[in-house]
Amino acid sequence: MFDTTIRYFCEVARLGSIRRAAESLNVATSALSRQMANLEATLGTPLFERHARGVHLTEAGRLFHEHARATMLDLERVRGEIDALAGRHRGHIRVCTVEGLIGDLVPDAVADFRARTPDVTLSVLTDGTAGVVRAVADDAVDVGFAFHPQPHRDVEVYQEAVQPLHVVVAPEAGFRLPARPRLRDLINLPLIIPPDSSYGVRQLIDGVARADSLVLRPVLTSDSITGLREMAARGLGVTLLPLPSVHKDVRAGRLRAVPLADANLRDARVGILVRRGRILPPVTRAFLSRAGLLLAESSSTPAP
């Protein structure tokens, strides 16, 4: 069917490689290559520029890709509407989340939703905040969960909630902290933070550091929330994370979390993201509704 060809074309365009797209789609590379060549012959123009490292869209390819993505999304939405009319709740929802929410909010949302709609499948990927925003903007996923997402013209914040940053330390580490520490109080302590501003936590920290003319000299960096948490738990330094990322360890007495007093760090937010202007299928809208309720509950839950 033509919708299969469109789906295959969109995957090649997304990955920039026929070989990687074939692996993703679980089809033979030679078969996918022939299908793309047949599509170009049907349209009477090259859609890809082929080179040693993969493929790039031509100008005609970019135009076709724009319409192909819209067609794919329309087909998905119409199928969902037809299923809803027939009383069926089927489909597949693609989710991308920052790692800090994979231990609690996102699994809770998935479990809650699956209990109500067992015929709907979901895939959950993790990335940094910038990667989540990009995946939503590119229609690579249907729903994104991100910490402190930056505005993007193609991305809409469906719902957000305040999740303040906390100083996270091992209770026995011996680091002296004020009752309401500010970032400037941590400058002379061994800092453990994300490596760059593609991570929402680092964006916030860097913003406060610039405003207060502070120089950050982290002793350890990690692109993994688990890595940040575990290094802090071993007494190697202090890290800064939202409470949902560490609350189980805090309850177990393995870590201590102290709220930061800096206004921008107190007002940090978690957002549920969708692509602006996209009409979502009924099952995706239902998932968003459940996830939004859980996000609101998590932001109103007192610290342990």
Strand percent estimate: 15-25%
Counting helices, strands and paired strands, the structural category is alpha/beta
Named CATH topology of the largest domain: D-Maltodextrin-Binding Protein, domain 2
CATH class of the largest domain: Alpha Beta
Question: How can the largest sheet be summarized?
Answer: 5 strands, mixed
List low-pLDDT spans: none
**Global geometry:** globular
Tell me the name of the CATH homologous superfamily of the largest domain: Periplasmic binding protein-like II
**Mean of all residue-level pLDDT scores:** 89
Protein name: Transcriptional regulator, LysR family
Organism: Caenispirillum salinarum AK4
InterPro entries: HTH-type_LysR_regulators, LysR_HTH_N, LysR_subst-bd, WH-like_DNA-bd_sf, WH_DNA-bd_sf
Pfam families: HTH_1, LysR_substrate
